[in-house]
């Protein structure tokens, strides 16, 4: 049985708690939360650093800027303490403990359940001998456990911003254009899903379609004329140019 | 039985042919192709405008710039002729025939099968009385048939560029960053799929996560420093700014 303590009560902590609760080899013995959260049983919550129990792994799931502060306030030494951040080195964690990273590569939103089995978990430990326990913990909830060093994790985090946050923003622009023209946005959903599925069997370069990659300047002109929002026009132009540059390589 | 003739032999013609072949109410009696294509039975192909047969609907599936030319060369009058373009008015078709649009809203790539049942088909006819036959034809292959006027279709086409072509380009950038750091791109696939699925239950604005929407300037700085490609840096900055502008509205 792996005893886990979660430090933090946001989206990542909530989703990890739900996933670990279903894993028979793991027990979440405590959740540290500044204020009482309804997302965890009251009986296991504490807001007092001096009341933190003993556990095999301490997982700090707070905003990147707060990781160092939480780890500094821990009252114990030489235990395994990890954070869940994609863009933070493990050495922001206080060196009094054994350090590592447990980074689930997914977009977490409150009230939107996710299937943890499919979520890649990226692990790094300062000391090789700590890897096995993190790996066992990760495998208890996910089928995709990956040893990823600090530089790779940062690369993944940047990539995730492009393929998730920026992509979602393009969906939002599509949504705005549809709204202005009284078109239900869900009409674009099959296209959105096919675009996401297509790259399972083709590389993104092979999968590219549309006026930019065809160098169809007439359609590109028409689209830019059609758009009334300057910001949308600018994004249209820069991404069109970028697609055309790739094709020239 | 609806008799259909396809004019063109590219991706759209090929996918439509495959879909109509499974529809019991439709017969593709001929395919017009400049050169013999192995994607259609040889017996139904012609490259001679004077040999085109009689049919209920003629579907021109050629590049946008070639639509007018193909429609001008048709040797008959007063029959229903439609194109499949998202960004082209029906009046580029020669007025000697009854005109319309049959626009399947999907990304078609050779050798990548698609399930037509899920593909929205957007219909427009010059004359109200022609709508019923196009609707029957569309319903024979798709569960999503939509009456969409010319301006709406253009809006949809522009939106599709954002949510499909531009999104795919962001996947490509993610792929490049992964490659440079020896990370298998498929590790991002669950995130990509969840991003596409999430907007079925949340609006894109509600679904937004990441450093831009959190105004996490420290992480944004780190990401821009991490990127070595000037083009990627520029796209990162402009999309981050755009996400932050939306949130301020």
Automatic annotation (TrEMBL), chains A, B:
PANTHER family to which the protein is assigned, alphabetical: CONSERVED HYPOTHETICAL ALANINE AND LEUCINE RICH PROTEIN
Chain ranges of the DUF2520 domain: 119-243
InterPro entries assigned: 6-PGluconate_DH-like_C_sf, DUF2520, NAD(P)-bd_dom_sf, TM1727-like_C_sf
Gene3D superfamilies (alphabetical): NAD(P)-binding Rossmann-like Domain, ProC-like, C-terminal domain
Protein name: Predicted oxidoreductase, contains short-chain dehydrogenase (SDR) and DUF2520 domains
Coiled coil: none
């Amino acid at each position: 049985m792996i005893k886990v303590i979660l430090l933090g009560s946001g989206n990542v902590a909530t989703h990890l708690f739900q996933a670990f609760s279903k894993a028979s080899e793991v027990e979440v013995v405590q959740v540290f939360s500044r204020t009482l959260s309804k997302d965890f049983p009251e009986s296991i919550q504490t807001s007092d650093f001096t009341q933190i129990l003993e556990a095999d792994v301490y997982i700090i799931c707070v905003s990147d800027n707060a990781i160092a502060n939480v780890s500094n306030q821990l009252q114990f030494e030489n235990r395994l303490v990890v954070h869940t951040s994609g863009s933070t080195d493990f050495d922001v964690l206080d060196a009094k403990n054994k350090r590592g990273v447990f980074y689930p590569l997914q977009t977490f939103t409150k009230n939107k359940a996710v299937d943890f089995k499919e979520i890649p978990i990226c692990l790094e430990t300062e000391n090789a001998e700590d890897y096995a326990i993190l790996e066992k913990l990760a495998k208890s909830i996910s089928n995709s456990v990956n040893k990823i060093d600090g530089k790779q994790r940062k690369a993944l985090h940047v990539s995730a911003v492009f393929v998730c946050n920026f992509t979602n923003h393009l969906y939002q622009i599509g949504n705005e254009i549809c709204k202005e023209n009284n078109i239900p946005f869900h009409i674009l959903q099959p296209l959105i899903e096919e675009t996401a599925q297509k790259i399972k069997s083709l590389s993104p370069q092979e999968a590219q379609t549309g006026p930019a990659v065809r160098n169809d300047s007439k359609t590109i002109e028409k689209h830019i004329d059609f758009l009334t929002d300057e910001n949308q026009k600018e994004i249209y132009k820069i991404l069109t140019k970028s697609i055309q540059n790739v094709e020239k390589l």
